[in-house]
Amino acid sequence: MFQFVVKYLGFLKSAPLFPQVFESFLILWTLISRPVILDYVDDIRSKVLTWPNTSVSLHKYGGIQFNHGNKEIGHIHGNGILDIILSRKLKAQLIKEGLAKPHHVFPKSGWISFHLYNEKDKIMALELLHRSYSKILLSN
Amino acid sequence: MGLKQNMRDVFTPQFKGFFWSNLVGISIIGITKYLMTENGSGVIVFSEFVVIPILMGMISGWFWQDLGLVTRRLALYSCYNSFLAIGLSFIFLGEGIICLVIVSPLIFCFMLLGTIFGKGIYKKNNDKLNVSIVFILAVVFVTDTLSKHEYENEVSDTIVVNAPPGRVWQNVVAFKRINVPAQFWLFRLGLPSPVESTVTGYYRGAGRKCIFSNNYVFDETISTYDISKNLTFDIVNQPKDPEIMNHIAILRGQFLLKDNGNGTTTLTGNSWYRLYVFPIWYYDIWAKSITRNVHLRVMQHIKELSEK
User: Fold this and answer.
1) What is the mean pLDDT of chain B?
2) Which fold is adopted by the domain A2-139?
3) Is the Cβ of A137 closer than 8 Å to some Cβ of chain B?
4) How confident is the model at residue B37 (pLDDT cuts 50, 70, 90)?
5) Do A57 and B79 touch (CB under 8 A)?
6) From CA B258, how far away is CA B261, in angstroms rounded?
7) pLDDT value at position B150?
8) Percent of chain A with pLDDT over 90
9) Predicted local confidence at residue B107, as pLDDT
């Protein structure tokens, strides 16, 4: 369903409330189908907030956004899809290793999408977020 | 002292979240419904299905903000609250069960949206922001409620009957009872489906009745009686069913028969309706689907009778 909406209704992402409404549907669907994903998202959120100068906000296209100052570390959707911007080199490496996929909307950008399914994925998601966080720290 | 303690035990933040959000929601909808019916429009605007659930979610989120609820628990509470709101709408607002089934995705979704949104903004501890958002919601609600809402649409369906128009026509004007169980899921869930049609005569101006499975009757008057070609009828009275009342008005129905010249007939069923529930982008999907299934049930029956 997520892919269908992104592919065919993606043009509505700028419509007021639409991404947030869709995000609510995703959370409800996840609550019914894979509720443990919501716990993983909470765990990730709690962990990221222990890193210095991090904060969370609502992502403009739905989901929770992790920030360092004004810069986005990444964001995670209600169905457990984590989107992170990394260097193109690291992106290519992660995709080659099968650890991530090109971003579900912008496949040619530096963004990657990582799907959370289990506890191991949660650890990997934190690892990826930390890499993005470190990249921001270095650029600062 | 004991009473105070008991009150504290009952009026926990969880309870207050459920209680106050539903009290506010039901009150606003009840008052609006009363005022809208009083001034004659009887329209249920999109704000009642969108703004009110968001507001209810935000109210409950306000009471639950210090409970440290994880997302799973918060979403679950929001679902309980939606079930409660739907149940209260059934009891206090007299809504039909099928209507509530139809509206429930909006309630669940926007209630959760309000709860999550509330959780996000209360954390910012910015009273100006909180008041502004409630103010914006109020402005949207009032503007939407006072705006004129009109929407009419037509649904058209076609099937080919393996019989000449003359034989099909005999079953179009009036038809014997449909005994085949309905397949459409809403009919199986209890939404009345068409079962029989009777007429007082075979001429323009004659009365026609479309009888539904729960014995509700749509009274119709034949406005066009063009033998073997066109039967058009205006709906002059529709049943006072809570599933229909103040939600949809069926205005006119029509059967068009086209001779295909090979012993078959193309039968087209048209219906015109007016919606009293908004947003259209949501309810028209349902209205079309239901109307289409009413058409197909009747037209399939006509086809079977004509092909015997």
Assistant:
1) 89
2) Aspartate Aminotransferase, domain 1 (3.90.1150)
3) no
4) low
5) no
6) 9
7) 85
8) 48
9) 93
pLDDT value at position B52? 92
List of chain B residues whose C-beta atoms are within 8 Å of the C-beta of residue A32: none
- Pick out chain A residues at pLDDT < 50: none
How many residues appear in chain A? 140
- The end-to-end CA distance of chain B, in Å, is 81
Best residue in A22, A25, A27 for a mutation probing chain B (most B CBs within 10 Å) = A27
Determine, for residues B117 and A38 on separate chains, whether the beta-carbon distance falls below 8 Å.
no
Q: Is this complex's ipTM strictly greater than 0.85? A: no
pTM of the predicted structure, to 2 decimals:
0.77
> Is A31 within 8 Å of B109 when comparing Cβ atoms?
no
Judged by a CB distance cut-off of 8 A, whether residue A41 touches chain B is yes
Please identify which residue in the block is written with the tokens 């079962």: B195
CA distances from B178 to B116, B185, B193, B196 (A): 49, 17, 10, 6
A58 touches chain B (CB under 8 A): yes
Contacts of A42 in chain B (CB under 8 A): 70-72
H-helix segments, A18-118: 18-33, 36-48, 88-96
Q: Do A39 and B108 touch (CB under 8 A)?
A: no
Is pLDDT of B1 > 60?
A: no
Best of B71, B106, B122, B136 to disrupt the A interface (most A CBs within 10 Å) is B71
What residue ranges define each of the domains in chain B, with the CATH number in brackets?
Answer: 2-146 (no CATH), 152-306 (3.30.530.20)
Length of chain B: 308
